[in-house]
């Protein structure tokens, strides 16, 4: 039996560099922002031009945001669920339970409500900072489009957002870097990995994912891609039972495989398995509502509802 790994990867190299870029951009922008507002502070920096550092930090944040968007889109096109970091309705209840004294232990998946709420804070504050900062740095453009009052408002909003950015930043650093009672020190932002014993307490879902490939390798089943292609071949031959079996096996290895869910729903519909079709397409739309084939899934479900009526 393959020995358990000593560490678990929670940030791959691309995520780690994006993370470090976001840290550098936020730190540079927040550190030089007060100097731009207060000339006395700017003098204390000596030859260092705070406006240059501030602009470079903003450019880094723009680059990180763009690359992150590309990464999310690529994951979506590859069939992965790119919405795991978006807040969910239950996150507020999780937050309230966490604030309550002697509350139940937090149930964590791949991401907890803490990561998702911090992500929401950054996703809202950083773009607004970039837009208002651009307006403040280009007053001629801002006055033309926003008017003098709009320029003043943009400057005030930018300063307020700079202070507001400290909230998700402090929240994220405290819970991700220190994670009281779980991680006395989280090295993942530098190494991408955490010790197995710490990951089991803080990120059990990451441990399960790390160990799953080893179990698959020992059993040597066909890959998810092979099973998807086998299901497609059976569907083309109108062998619905074989296609359903292949897609189900693919989903047993990768439950979130959007393409397999959609294909399973499609062949169940053609085979007259209406309830299985509803279940597969319902799961597909729940996790991937913006897929290019989502309209087709909704059309099939609507037909099934019409048949009921």
Structure description:
By secondary structure, the chain is mainly α. It folds into 2 domains: 7-212, Up-down Bundle (Fumarate Reductase Cytochrome B subunit); 221-308, Alpha Horseshoe (Serine Threonine Protein Phosphatase 5, Tetratricopeptide repeat), CATH 1.25.40.10. The protein is built from 15 helices and 2 strands. It has helices at 13-37, 39-44, 50-77, 90-99, 113-137, 139-164, 166-178, 188-191, 196-202, 204-219, 224-236, 240-253, 258-270, 274-287, 294-308; strands at 7-9, 193-195. A two-stranded antiparallel sheet has the order 1-2. α4 (90-99) crosses α5 (113-137). The longest helix is centred in the first third of the chain and has 28 residues, at 50-77. It is elongated and about 75 Å long. It starts with 6 loop residues before the first strand and ends with a helix. Mean pLDDT is 81; it is low at 213-220.
What's the layout of helices and strands?
Layout: E1 7-9, H1 13-37, H2 39-44, H3 50-77, H4 90-99, H5 113-137, H6 139-164, H7 166-178, H8 188-191, E2 193-195, H9 196-202, H10 204-219, H11 224-236, H12 240-253, H13 258-270, H14 274-287, H15 294-308
Q: Which fold does the CATH topology of the largest domain refer to?
A: Fumarate Reductase Cytochrome B subunit
Distance between the termini: 55 Å
Q: What order do the SSEs take from the amino end to the carboxyl end, as H and E?
A: EHHHHHHHHEHHHHHHH
Give the proportion of residues in helices. over 70%
**Percent of residues in beta strands:** under 5%
